[in-house]
Amino acid sequence: xxxxxxxxxxxxxxxxxxxxxxxxxxxxxxxxxxxxxxxxxxxxxxxxxxxxxxxxxxxxxxxxxxxxxxxxxxxxxxxxxxxxxxxxxxxxxxxxxxxxxxxxxxxxxxxxxxxxxxxxxxxxxxxxxxxxxxxxxxxxxxxxxxxxxxxxxxxxxxxxxxxxxxxxx
Length: 169
Prior knowledge:
The chain is an alpha+beta fold. The chain contains six helices and twelve strands. It has helices at residues 15-21, 36-44, 57-66, 102-113, 121-129, 135-148, and strands spanning 2-3, 5-6, 9-10, 28-31, 49-52, 76-78, 81-86, 89-92, 95-99, 119-120, 156-160, 164-168. It has a four-stranded antiparallel beta sheet with strand order 6-7-8-9, with no helix packed on it. A hairpin with a 3-residue loop joins β11 and β12 (164-168). The longest helix is centred in the last third of the chain and has 14 residues, at 135-148. The two termini are 35 Å apart. Mean pLDDT is 81; it is low at 72-80.
């Protein structure tokens, strides 16, 4: 949930960036602004709801209960069962296969979201730790992630030398 006024900045200008980096997030804007063009700009940038201040907490509760739960898509098919991630857990069909620590989960989720493309080390480090040059930390986390994935897992984490990582199925 964002307020449109962030000091001297307007959050509406940040919405496209937030939505592009975190498309799975539900974005709700709370503001006293009532300008239709400003509200439309927010919806065009990917928000799910705009609530005018002052708002009643019951109204916000209703909005939040109506937002769909966003499960991550199934992205690898094996006979009759799909592998997928949800809430730090790797599943095959309805069976929990492996719980993933936060860092490893976030890395795998990002690689899968951008599957087919190489995600640079700088991008991964920035999105996971907020700093672009933590190659040793990233390499260690990738190594741990590879060990956590089952041997029959259809995802292969590929290292693109001196560039980054990708997921191949």
